[in-house]
Amino acid sequence: MAKKKATAKKKASSKSSTASNLVEAGKAAPAFALKDHEGKTHRLSQYKNEYVVLYFYPRDNTSGCTKQACAFRDEIEEFSNLDAKIIGISPDNEASHTKFIDKHDLPFLLLSDPDHIALNKYGVWQEKNMYGRKVMGVVRTTYIINPKGKVAARFDKVRVADHIPKVIEELKKLQD
């Protein structure tokens, strides 16, 4: 019996992130170095002096993630006019990102984080309830990072249907 309790305790403490680990607005955006679909490493520091819309999503080529990526794609000109760079991060590998980008003609960066390094730093790798089972996964979250490298805004538990207009509106407010 004591062995079962120890195992349960170990499982509970092995959670990587919780909602309380999400990076708050006003805090420095955690640094990362992740590869794109071509194997090129990108660092957040490369995008200083411009706004970055950093969105975390669970998986390439799934219904919600495809809708979200295509919605960003469809408003790419608006984001460009606002001098904002869009970067998506998921745990998918580079080959998966290549297929996703090619299939949906995505004109922005997708970075691979199979080891959950940035996912943990930003607090989006969390325990989720999927069909009654507890599993670890990405909680759909978007950050706006300002040109000084600070988190200017965070969108939690993103609903894909109305998300992009909210991000654009917030970018406009931040730039006024």
Task: Write structural notes for this entry.
The chain contains 6 helices and 9 strands. It is α/β, with parallel strands linked by helices and 176 residues long. The chain has a single domain, classed as Glutaredoxin (3-Layer(aba) Sandwich), CATH 3.40.30.10. The strands form 3 sheets. It has a 5-stranded mixed β-sheet with strand order 5-4-3-8-9. Helix 2 (63-74) packs parallel to helix 6 (160-175). The radius of gyration is 17 Å and the shape is globular.
Helices and strands, with pairings:
Layout: H1 2-13, E1 33-35, E2 41-43, E3 51-56, H2 63-74, H3 76-81, E4 84-90, H4 94-104, E5 109-112, H5 117-121, E6 125-130, E7 133-138, E8 141-145, E9 151-155, H6 160-175
Parallel strand pairs: 3-4, 4-5
Antiparallel strand pairs: 1-2, 3-8, 6-7, 8-9
